[in-house]
Amino acid sequence: QEPAKKDFTITLVPGLTTDAFYITMNRGAQAAAEALGITVDFQGAEEFDPVLQTPVLDAVIARGPDAILIAPTDATQMIEPLRRANEAGIPVVTVDTFIDDGKYQDGSGDGDFPVSSISSDNVLGGRMAARAMAEDMGGKGKVYISNVRPGISTTDQREAGFKAEMSEKFPEIEVLDTQYNENDASLAASQFQAVLARNPDIAGVFGANLFSAIGAGNGVAGADKADDVTVIAFDAPPSIVDNIKSGVVDAAIAQHPAEIGYYGVMTAYAVLTGQSVPTAIGTGFTVIDADNVDDEAIAKFIYSE
Amino acid sequence: MKSLLNAWSWLFLVLILGFFEIYARIETGQTFLFRIYNIQSISVAASQILLLSLGLTLVVVAGHIDLSIAFSTGLAAVVMALVIRIIGPESGWLVVILAMAAGLLSAVLVGLVNGWLVAQLNVPSFIGTLGTFGIARGVALIVAGGATVSIRSEEARSFGNGEILGIPVPVLLALVLAAACHFLLTYTKFGVHTYALGANRASVERAGVDVKKHLVMLFVISAITAGVGGLVYTGRFSAGAANAGEPILLYAVAAVFIGGASLTGGQGTVIGTVIGAFIIAVIQFGLVFSGLPPYWQFVAVGLVIIVAVLVDQSRDKLTGSLS
Amino acid sequence: MKSLLNAWSWLFLVLILGFFEIYARIETGQTFLFRIYNIQSISVAASQILLLSLGLTLVVVAGHIDLSIAFSTGLAAVVMALVIRIIGPESGWLVVILAMAAGLLSAVLVGLVNGWLVAQLNVPSFIGTLGTFGIARGVALIVAGGATVSIRSEEARSFGNGEILGIPVPVLLALVLAAACHFLLTYTKFGVHTYALGANRASVERAGVDVKKHLVMLFVISAITAGVGGLVYTGRFSAGAANAGEPILLYAVAAVFIGGASLTGGQGTVIGTVIGAFIIAVIQFGLVFSGLPPYWQFVAVGLVIIVAVLVDQSRDKLTGSLS
Amino acid sequence: MTAILKATGLKKRFGGIEAVKDVNFEVHPGECVVLAGDNGAGKSTIIKMISGVYQPTEGTVTFDGEKLTGKSPEAVRRAGIETIYQDLALADNLDAGLNLYLGREKMTRVLGIPVLDRKSMRNAAVEVLKSLGIVVPDPTAPVRDMSGGQRQAIAIARAIHWQAKLVILDEPTAALGVPEQREVMALIERMKKKGVAIILISHNLPDIFAAADRIIVLARGVIGGERRPSETSDEEIVRLMMGATS
Amino acid sequence: MTAILKATGLKKRFGGIEAVKDVNFEVHPGECVVLAGDNGAGKSTIIKMISGVYQPTEGTVTFDGEKLTGKSPEAVRRAGIETIYQDLALADNLDAGLNLYLGREKMTRVLGIPVLDRKSMRNAAVEVLKSLGIVVPDPTAPVRDMSGGQRQAIAIARAIHWQAKLVILDEPTAALGVPEQREVMALIERMKKKGVAIILISHNLPDIFAAADRIIVLARGVIGGERRPSETSDEEIVRLMMGATS
Ligand SMILES: Nc1ncnc2c1ncn2[C@@H]1O[C@H](COP(=O)(O)OP(=O)(O)OP(=O)(O)O)[C@@H](O)[C@H]1O
Ligand SMILES: Nc1ncnc2c1ncn2[C@@H]1O[C@H](COP(=O)(O)OP(=O)(O)OP(=O)(O)O)[C@@H](O)[C@H]1O
Ligand SMILES: [Mg+2]
Ligand SMILES: [Mg+2]
């Protein structure tokens, strides 16, 4: 690779293409691309799933971009498919999620080859959701998690972080069984209502993704429980923000996808131009709630549509 | 015979309701069934399934299938939300009605394409509607820019979440459409021809019915009820999502088959489908209510679906040997 | 006629390959087709679809459907991974083979239940296998504790990712099973009875064939090929996931129908299904390769599926008027 | 009297098989023309070309002065031709009444809304079948549950129930009991008297001779000969069927 | 000579309809028993109870000293009873050869592996059909594309091709051409000579009288009378069919 070359092409492979989080990440990546005068493509599968992501990745490798930014859909399962990119001489930067243990270039583990990981730690995000929830509830009561389906690493991690934080820090909060809604907001709403029918004292729901949260929020509103039940959402697309404004959702844990995309492209560019890069960059979270939702400073953390 | 069949589906629904009622009384001391809240929750969930399966019932009776409803729903939801966003919610009911018309129209377009493919080009409906499934999905996502389109319209919200005489609007809509579909299938020429088409295409063709036109109408009806499902979705959640209908597709198809329809056509009733949708909604609600751990819920839903049909089977055996 | 049908599916596959080849040469100056890497990638993706659709083809020819393959795959994948994890990967090939046997067995159990439901209890296959879909899903998740079961076994890895004579092992396996299914369907009594069953159940019944046994075998075969799909998954990704098969269910069903099968049974070939699976894999790979934006890809896939069948239709017209 | 139906140069290919080759004939009002011929001679194919189910590869059909070729079964039926097909084409899941009226259902009004009049169709079906000598034990049962002859009778009833100018019957008595066969033969006689033209396909020599004004014998897709019943014999007809040229 | 088949007290209900009520009869080797009766009399139902397709509501069937009741169609067929059903029950998507051999396919070996011998089955089918006077234009075509009579002939061929002790024929000549009808009648004669027992259902009086050793007349599910052809007349049989008690 001659360092003189400037018009690089980088492909961003999201976990799935139909999610505001990744669409916002792409916005950030495009902003960086514009600043650098390079091209960033966006190619991914329709669901967050390794079987679907692998063929897309294979085809991206065949197309031969200069670097790949990818949100691997599974820490173990995507090691093999990504190894092929590495073997083809394409530098890999993982964004949002990671492979193996997320610690690269230290000579340990099967998935040591990516040059850098730019992640927002989903486990930590889950912990922050738990903290926001506990604070709103006054540290005790019954809550449950509304999740998509088992086996999706990001939402599984949010769930794990949420449960860990609750059991470590808030022993008086009882976390009930998780309810899976298949990304069907309508089912998520009905599930909240069933949980409420069984536990009239339910005090909080953590919606681990967009549809889980708006569904649970709708269930809460339908039961006239908006004042008694705390709804915490993960991710902050405008529909969640609208729900915060209308009081259906109490708070959202916003990741910083645009930042991730921006740093991802910058990191890849640095690698391509022969500069050294840190092997791990963490991006933070912002808690959006009714108090700060209208702040100017917060607006940039709302995902694009 | 037809009324008997329905009686047995009813029976099964009553059985699972009774089961949950007894369970609830013993375990929690509460009633399951006799709470308006529970009934409303279950009905709203059932109506969202039902809206996708009503038109589908007619298509299946005619011996076809319509997979595209998964995204006719999504397309209608997205288009409605977009129109409200573009015009602005200030114009009140006018814009909402306009937006709903636009959403419905987009679904009807999908139905017309399905009808054209199946009737005119003789594409098998499974493949043809799988194709429009992809197309409607892509178009909905392109139009929406990939994400959900959130809106702020008090009118739309009240359309999706309001009540009339204590009945939630989505339930009312689903029941009105169910009654219309039932009337169509049972009391009109169109309905008889649909059954005949499912049993033997030659019979209707030689009877001089314009089968092509009939097929197009069936797919349009299917698209309309699915599209209404999308409008309800946008109203309920104040957001139009391209994948609004996709997770419900399998349940919608299941409701039709639990209701007595068959892959080979010529069988099925709207009342059966209504009961099928309620059976699914009651199980989903009841299992959460009863506190069964989540993975066991998958197992239980599977078992209940099978048992629902077994009850139907035993009817045949019983009436066969009794009467 | 049968060979002609296949010739036309081939033609369509060749057409889209030609299209992508020309496109690639013009746009990027590279070849699309004549790169081992591309061929391998496409073949592996096709083989993962194919493993779910091979047995399904037989079931569909017999006039039934099997939705449970979505989770027979997942169950086999999880069980295989669990056995390796429990015994420990040190024992090398022995444990891998044992684990694969266990995984396959778990899938066969699902197939037996399907067969029992459909053959013995007369449950319509759509409903029966939707029920076992839920049951297998729940069981796989319970067994796996909800998460994916990751393993570290060099042998399993090489089973899923290795090559023999330059052909990836999954592709080899899929082709061997395809050949076996083709043989079964074309050259054996079992195959003839499967076609006859799809056309007219009475014909085989009165010919003295044990239809119930036959149905059970069909569902077991379907579970076996789907189960092998699960084993390949665990090998490829060094992890067993309960969801392994679910996202490809629709593609697997589509491959069977693109290959010429019909909902009403009595039609379809294994060769057609193989071509169908390759058509899907080529489109998916080709569209990403050609850089089409993701949402447009949905539209394109939908269009190609429809056109694939239209090409097949025009064959009928052409041969009808020509010969 | 001019012919009501005229078939000119009819030809039909299926793939490599030429099922019908250059067939010409006419039918006059009130006349019964019998199409006789061996199995596979092309009889059903000819009548399907008349009724619009198949489009002829070559040739034309005119009816009442109008060209029928290219028209749909619906249009042909509206023009006044009723057909009973050999494969009956019943909707197995519907009852006898609905099958009889399929495409022309009777309606009634309930609260001003037009709805199907299932009961009156059912009663009419029972009546028409009775006139053919057939008693249906349960008129609400789907025709799937009926005996071979009962099904055949419904198909016949469907054709004769409407005031047609030409009735085509493809082996109408094949599955019928002896008394019912006699009813159908009597019926053909009655229709002829009313001036209805009839094309009958039959393999039953006594029936052929009893009903026919003219017998057209087909052999392997071509007309082997045409005879008036009074001028010919069983044996000659069978010889013609087997391909002897006249 | 002892009877090869004995039906005792047979009864069959469908829902509210009693299609067959207390039917008793015997068939001896080399004998042709004709079941005659009006449409819906219960003839097809009786033979389906013999061949195992239906289980009788009451009554038993014994064959060759063994009890048949409760056995599957497969077991009945293995016991030596071949049946042609009125509804033919062909696999429409298969060719004539495969239909002829369905359930008993011919196999051959290629490289030591047993595979279907489609060609030899096809050739055999062409031969058997030729012996019935039927020429199939394209033996590789699915039977769906064949004429009514060609399909009927395949169903007949399927039953007679195997060495059975009892052959049941439900209206076998219904769709056949005149020459083919004669072939089938001759065939029945040949089978009788070989000692095969035959149960024939027919609505054709000349055929009934030509083939029968005994005529059993059914009316509304019960046996209205039993006659030897030499002792009765057309008119008496028809009267019995219509329910006159003997
Ligand atoms: N759809 C079709 N495709 C191919 N061949 C056909 C088709 N329909 C009929 N044939 C062939 O055309 C020829 C004429 O068939 P047709 O049904 O007209 O005979 P038919 O005279 O009515 O005989 P039958 O008296 O047995 O009913 C037969 O050889 C038949 O196999
Ligand atoms: N599966 C069934 N369900 C209900 N009723 C039936 C069924 N099969 C036959 N029937 C009724 O039983 C009676 C006897 O029928 P069957 O078929 O035995 O008559 P058949 O003597 O063979 O008449 P045909 O000469 O017309 O063939 C008829 O009234 C028929 O409607
Ligand atoms: Mg014919
Ligand atoms: Mg009969």
TrEMBL record, chains B, C:
Keyword field: Cell membrane, Membrane, Transmembrane, Transmembrane helix
Membrane topology qualifier: Multi-pass membrane protein
Broad class of where this protein is predominantly found: membrane
Transmembrane segments: 40-62, 69-87, 93-119, 126-144, 164-185, 215-235, 247-263, 270-289, 295-311
Subcellular locations according to the entry: Cell membrane
UniProt-listed CDD domains: TM_PBP1_transp_AraH_like
Keyword Transmembrane attached: yes
KW Coiled coil (keyword) present: no
Entry protein name: ABC transporter permease
From TrEMBL, chains D, E:
Bilayer-spanning residue ranges: none
Gene3D superfamilies reported in the protein's UniProt record: P-loop containing nucleotide triphosphate hydrolases
SUPFAM superfamilies, per database record: P-loop containing nucleoside triphosphate hydrolases
Keywords assigned: ATP-binding, Nucleotide-binding
Protein's name according to its UniProt entry: ATP-binding cassette domain-containing protein
A Pfam short name: ABC_tran
InterPro entries, per database record: AAA+_ATPase, ABC_carbohydrate_import_ATPase, ABC_transporter-like_ATP-bd, ABC_transporter-like_CS, P-loop_NTPase
Domain ABC transporter: 5-245
Highest taxon of the lineage: Bacteria
A single GO molecular function term of this UniProt record: ATP binding
Entry similarity comment: Belongs to the ABC transporter superfamily.
